[in-house]
Amino acid sequence: MPIxxxxxxxxxxxxxxxxxxxxxxxxGQSAIVxxxxxxxxxxxxxxxxxxxxxxxxxxLRLIRRIATEADYKQIAENKHREAEAxxxxxxxxxxxKLDMKLVDVExxxxxxxxxxxxxxxxxxxxxxxxxxxxxxxxxRIELRxxxxxxxxxxVGGMGPCxxxxxxxxxxxxxxxxxxxxxxxxNLSLNPTKISGICGRLMCCLRYEAEQYECARGEFPSxxxxxxxxxxxxxxxxxxxxKKNLLVExxxxxxxxxxxxxxxxxxxx
Length: 268
Known about the structure:
By secondary structure, the protein is an alpha+beta fold. Helix content is 26%, strand content 29%. The strands form 3 sheets. The chain has a 5-stranded antiparallel beta sheet, with no helix packed on it. It has a 4-stranded antiparallel beta sheet with strand order 9-10-11-12, with no helix packed on it. β7, α2 (127-137) and β8 (140-145) form a beta-alpha-beta unit. α1 (69-96) crosses α2 (127-137). The radius of gyration is 27 Å and the shape is elongated. The chain starts with a strand and ends in a 9-residue tail after the last strand.
C-alpha cells in the first residue's frame, strides 16, 4: 500500500493526499507541495501512513520540502498582496456595475495565478473585469463563483448556538441536510430556527440524524396501539433522547409517559 501524508490548504478545508518521498512529516508542520495549480503551501494534518489504493485520487503528487523561513515570509507577503487585490477588484466590480459580491482573494504560492471568489444570484459576464484585472496584476486571473455555504466557510462567524461556525472550524466537506432530519428530531420547522447564517439548513442537523434513524426502528409510530403496564393505549409522541413514549390510555383518555422497555408488542 502507498505511503501518503494528509495536507490541508485552508482551515477546515478538504484533506488531500501527497507522496512524502523520503520525508518524515509531523502533524502541524507546513510543507511545499506540487498541485495542479503549481507549488502550494499547506499544513500537514495526517502523518506518514499507509492507505488503500482506492482512497487515492491519481495522480499522487509529491511533497517538495518542509516549509522554510523564506516560505513563511512568502506567505506573509501573499496575504498582504491579497488585501490589496481585494480592494482593487472591488473597485473594478463597482466600475463595471456587476451584480456580484466579492468574498475572498487567493494568491497561489508561486504567484502564477490570482483567484477571486464571489457570490451572485445568477450568471455574471465578467470578461471585461478579467481583462482589467489581468492588465493590473500581469498574471493569470480566475474568477470562481461559490455558494452561500462556501461563503460562510471562508468568512466564518458565530452560529445561533454561540459557537464558531462548524464549517469554518472543522467540517471539511458539506454533507446533505434535509428538512426531514429536523422533523425526525422534533425540532421547530420555523426556517429562522433551523437555518444557519448562510440561510441554508444548519449542518448540525445531520450530527444526530443517524441516531434518530436507528431509534425510530425501536419505537412504535405515533397513532399505533400498544400495551402498557396501565393498559392499552395509543402512542401520541416519542422522545428518543429520554427513550420514553407519551401514550393516551384508552380506559380514561389519560396521557402518560412510559419507558420504551415497559411497552409490549404493538397490537395487531
